[in-house]
Model the fold of this input.
Amino acid sequence: MNIPAIAVHGGSGTIASSIDDPKIRKSYLDALREALEAGFSLLTNDGTALESVKKAVTVLEDCELFNAGKGSVFTSKGDHEMDAAIMDGKTLDAGAVAGIKGIKNPVLFADDIMKNTPFVFLAGNEAMEYARRQKYEFLPDSYFFTQLRYDQWTNLRGSGDVSLDHSSDNGHKFGTVGAVAVDSEGNLAAATSTGGMTNKAWGRVGDSPMIGAGTYAKNQTCAVSCTGHGEYFIRGVVAYDVSCLMEYGGMSLKDATNEAIFKRLKKMGGEGGLIAIDAHGNIYMPFNTEGMYRGLKNNRQTMTQIL
Ligand code: ASP
Done:
């Protein structure tokens, strides 16, 4: 038993060569560490796994280095549409939101939907109408603007191409953020937040806010947050698949996560990774891309890594 514990990710993919700059590298690792520490300090002060993942994802949403909240990629229209989900492994309660604009922390809105509405998943303008009624503060586009994302969009703008979040040297980078945690009672939770794909159009929604695809938690098996080419994660129902491989296939967390990423996702041609935790505090973070921004923290260690 190694509980409580938390893991976070800041996306997977081709890692931009700028990461070789020690200053840039440190800024990413520091951001992951800050999220881990914020989430873990709740866990060591009687906080629940649910509160912990919410806090960790909020920290990453507020950091412009990642494609979630501040720093979200640009849509084909030149604005930012964000998706997020949260799930409680104890009750199987879940909240999710897609295609929202102007809300600083989409994960808090997903949590609100879970707790204060009879629904799981709200989308688009009507969801924003609900947010307005709940007196959410709406921030201008300038809050979400970053030069890097703008330059990425400029390369695609008007081309009609819909592209994944490219790194500056044109590799695929999926900058979604997520967290999974187990609290001292053995309860699990997962949360994921993203700006989706650069130049996305037609109301495209990825796997991140879809319960079972990019986000899933169940106390009896695991909590999972995914990152990668969302269309494959949706079709592979990857987060729930990991849980099913444990529940019905009798696999360990390690075998289930490896099977999902290195065999099933790869066979479909999908790129990405995930972070997963079980009730004993075991954590696995497999990815089939060049790298994945990731980290974990428990009573024995704090670890952050990119490649
Ligand atoms: N999975 C996300 C999506 O397809 C992208 C990411 O992981 O960065 O929207």
Q: What stands out?
A: The radius of gyration is 17 Å. The first helix runs from residue 22 to 43. Residues 11, 67, 165, 174-176, 194, 196-197, 206-208, 214, 227-228, 230 surround aspartic acid (CB under 6 Å). The chain has one domain: 5-305.
